[in-house]
Recover the amino acids of this structure.
């Protein structure tokens, strides 16, 4: 009996032979989407199997990878891994997804799945890639979806789409969600968390479990089916969105309670059944602000809690600006006469991503009030998408500032010399500043007045 293995789905070879075939590159892999999550995934597959082709529609991305270059910034270890795997012939790239599909027996899809202006899941890129894969999908192939999708996408959309394009149903399909954060992608992929896998049938789950048992050093959790795996990924985001909404709503009650809500949250969290997140000026990124709509607008039921959580979190930029305007007014400064610095435009410290960042609506609202808005962010070269003028940290000292809003506490902001400014109104959205020894009027979201001088609201403002 021949021990050669190409496709794993439905293979009659012993599992030990299938594992060896995957590990030694007899089972070629294609990874579709070579962005900030896809390239690290392709590189880890390449170091594991030695036989990976990555597909991306951007010719510049393909050219860079084939030259051994890494276009994804600030991912520790990734430039070296890309260079090594490309040099070894373990990783190459193409801008033709159908070419990649024709060469592969395991197809890993990790493409963007954003939402439309109507807040519905936009699966157009996923549909297109699935069509390309299906056109060259051989019996025994496995399709793995890692990008986040609404539950039932594999069963209701991809399964029939792939079968129709392939002209057969002798393939596996599994959902194996990425659980990866920017800045730590390789560590996460290699095993920081258990890997979840779920197939449209038992054989799909078996093969996905076999594959990821080689990719990750952590536990592989096989769930009942693909829809359950899809729900796991979405539920992780929903939990965080709802939890943050609770923290944010409590933070808006700080002045009414007359307490430091952040202190109360931290103390409440010493009880093992309590895990309230931190409040802030809003929720950004390509995950948490979007995933609730994979349920809200994809089911017939009225998902009231999820909708309310989105409304609460979407309202935090307005709350932040209203707080700043109130504090400026208490100082006798009108917002339309103020120069305000927005510190941090990206949604998270140390990451270049600006999708859904609260800095966008904060800058927009400040501009609408007539303020001159300056922006500082060490991750970005310009503030083109924002209603703000980009300046360097050093340029702030000569900007005659009236106020500042800490939106994203990049490490570089620790070097700001606050004593060089005339007294400012500062709204600290993340509780990252210690300005007790300064003359600035500081309001920390969730804690209230925290400045070095009396920042309590007057009775008139409090009323």
């Amino acid at each position: 009996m021949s021990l050669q293995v190409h496709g794993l789905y439905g293979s009659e070879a012993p599992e030990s032979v299938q594992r060896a075939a995957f590990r030694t590159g007899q089972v070629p892999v294609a990874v579709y989407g070579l962005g900030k999550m896809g390239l690290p995934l392709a590189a880890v597959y390449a170091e594991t199997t030695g036989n990976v082709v990555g597909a991306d529609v951007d010719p510049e991305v393909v050219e860079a990878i084939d030259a051994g270059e890494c276009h994804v910034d600030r991912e520790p270890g990734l430039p070296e891994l890309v260079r090594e795997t490309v040099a070894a012939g373990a990783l190459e790239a193409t801008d033709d997804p159908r070419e990649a599909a024709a060469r592969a027996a395991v197809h890993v899809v990790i493409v963007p799945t954003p939402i439309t202006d109507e807040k519905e899941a936009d699966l157009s890129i996923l549909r297109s890639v699935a069509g390309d894969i299906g056109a060259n999908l051989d019996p025994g192939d496995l399709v793995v979806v890692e990008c986040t999708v609404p539950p039932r996408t594999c069963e209701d959309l991809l399964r029939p789409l792939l079968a129709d394009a392939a002209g057969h149903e002798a393939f596996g399909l599994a959902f194996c969600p990425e659980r990866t954060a920017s800045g730590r992608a390789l560590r996460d992929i290699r095993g920081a968390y258990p890997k979840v896998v779920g197939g449209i049938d038992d054989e799909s789950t078996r093969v996905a479990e076999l594959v990821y048992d080689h990719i990750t050093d952590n536990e592989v959790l096989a769930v009942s089916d693909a829809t359950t795996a899809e729900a796991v990924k979405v539920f992780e985001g929903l939990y965080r969105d709802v939890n943050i909404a609770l923290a944010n709503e409590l933070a808006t009650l700080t002045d009414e309670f007359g307490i430091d809500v952040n202190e109360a949250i931290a103390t409440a969290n010493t009880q093992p059944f309590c895990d309230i997140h931190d409040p802030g000026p809003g929720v950004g990124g390509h995950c948490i602000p979007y995933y609730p709509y994979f349920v809200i607008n994809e089911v017939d039921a009225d998902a009231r809690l999820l909708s309310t959580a989105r409304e609460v979190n979407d309202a935090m930029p307005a709350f932040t600006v209203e707080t700043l305007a109130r504090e400026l007014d208490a100082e006798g400064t009108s917002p339309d006469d103020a120069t305000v610095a927005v510190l941090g435009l990206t949604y998270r410290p140390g990451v270049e991503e600006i999708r859904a960042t609260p800095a966008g609506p904060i800058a927009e609202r400040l501009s609408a009030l007539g303020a001159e808005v300056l922006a500082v962010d060490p991750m970005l070269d310009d503030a083109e998408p924002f209603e703000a003028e980009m300046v360097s940290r050093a340029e702030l000292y000569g900007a005659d500032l009236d106020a500042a809003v800490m939106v994203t506490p990049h490490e570089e902001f620790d070097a700001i010399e606050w004593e060089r400014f005339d007294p400012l109104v500062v709204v600290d959205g993340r509780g990252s500043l210690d300005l007790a020894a300064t003359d600035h009027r500081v309001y920390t979201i969730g804690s209230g007045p925290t400045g070095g001088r009396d920042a309590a609201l007057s009775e008139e403002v409090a009323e």
Observations:
- The chain has 18 helices and 15 strands.
- The domain at 15-224 is CATH 3.40.50.720 (Rossmann fold).
